[in-house]
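Chain particulars:
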Amino acid sequence: MAPSKKFVNGPDPLKGQVFQFHVYRARGITDNLRPDVPYAEAKTKKNPVLRGIWLFCAAFLMEWFRFIRERIWRHTGFDSLRRIIPYIEDYEPWYEPLVIPRPDDLSQKVDSLDSGQAQTSPTNESQDEEDDEEEKFPTPPLYYTIQDYRRAYLSGTLTPTDVVRSILGLIHPKDAPHSQAVTATLIPSALAAAEASTERYKQGRPLGPLDGVPTVVKDEYDVAGYQTTLGSRNIYASTEDGHPSTWCVQQLEQAGAIVIAKSAMTEFGLDATGNNPIYGTPRNPYNRRYYTGGSSSGTGYSVAVGLVPVGLGSDGGGSIRIPAGFCGVFGLKPTHGRVSFRPGQNHSITCACLGPMAADIESLATVFEVIAKPDPSSHFPELKSPLDLRMPPPSSDEEDPNRLLGIPIAWVSQASPAVQTLINSLIRKLTTTHGFRTVPISIPFLPEGQLAHAMTILTDAATLLPPPPATRNLTPANRLLLALGRTTPATDYLLAQKLRRLLMQHLAWLWEQHPGMLIITPTAGCAGLKIGRESDAVQGGFGVSDGDSTMECMRYAWLANFCGLPSLSIPVGFVQARGGDVPVGMMVTGEWCAEERLLRFGRVVERVLYEEGMQGRRRRPGCWVDVLERARGRARERAAESGEERE
């Protein structure tokens, strides 16, 4: 098979098969004639929800009795890959899904060439006037964007210092109304950065669109002056060791963005709920009976309630996209390796990546363009800059790659009916009035792939953390998960990596058949995740272990992590639930390095949600904070005080 022309090390385009390789060789069957692998749920058993003293006891037994670990490991379904050995045995394992584009690859420029238009910065204030009518907002957007902050600063009506001071009062001290969204804040550092930005605006020398914009950074990143805990009791970088910030945080700060806090996360990022009994669990901004989703829970919450327009998260199995979906904001998981962890380490190099979350697409694109700058050791080329977010007009060409949506129908049908209804109605809107078309697609061994991803993540985690008794300071839920990770045989781990190659090659084959296609699924299989008992989310408690709910949250998100693909969660509406509505996200996944295409599609959907018949699909939560208005109040007080002093 000839190597991919788009990528230095891309997977060979090869359709996943129902029979073994040698059967196809003997029969001379080509890729296109191979039958699709029918979707079938893996044969797994229900796992009990564990909480309180029962969870503590289960963690103890799992850690100290191997026969119990092995029984639970099989009960979870991790041995199911052995049943498909005949279909994956001839594949070579693929351990890290790093796919690097060729520096001179024309596919990196194809989006702008397809449009036939000059490139325009996503932060260009005149862009809306240049857009096609269908891409304009029919009504003003609900959330403040990066440009709203920039305009306020340039006009002189507000300063970054006013804004930062107004936010700090909402997250500090610990009894502040939104304090559970963050784990730490360095007030002197944030105010110093704000004063420096304020001075640059006074002198007419702002650094760019991000100068003075407040942001939060997940506690998985290193930030100079902050300690890094990964949501745990452990300290991996202290306030005294002089550690530098993660490369992408450095890029944000050099662009003038102001880090106001480290945001909350689940311990080690090993849960999709957002539950953290150590630092506290932020509640869903729309419905306090529900979780925010995780593991980037604090960033999702902070953006949704309006504390910041943008923030940084990380994603090893949906940890950016799940909280984005549950909190009604946008979340981008970039191509694996595109955003650098350096000089720190990627704690799950087989699946995890860093990425942004935002209240609107243009802000998301602006941050992504900054943090995706390659570090000196990266093999990724520079992004085409500026990113062009304008969608080309509909084409009469049935093969138009700009408006092709692939729908894995059997897989999508596994989501809850309410989630399917929201997404299907939006797809109908896009196809009937916006020139998009759909094509049914099939991806083999998806249930087995999800188990392979979970097995890989847990085994990776088990190699990073010491075995018992050193686990005593961890939450019981994670002690249980790490015990499962230590149980995985090397042979099963290798089977998971063989399946990874099959999936990556099949996806490459799909994009060979349908160039430019975007794959549409729900962000999560469920409409939010309800907090089972109030005691589950209490700070200082045992927490909860609900493996089945976590897997349902990750039903669709895992594929992009396991195969290294870029993926975007887009808010598309709400589902009624007890205690209030719950946001629902739609996920769009593209070929490796197709972030610009994803953002362009997200921008179209963002505008469609404000059209007639779609109203109400986006709205602010009741606890939303008007940060700019609070800052204006502070500015008026400051002006009044200085006036009194002059008198």
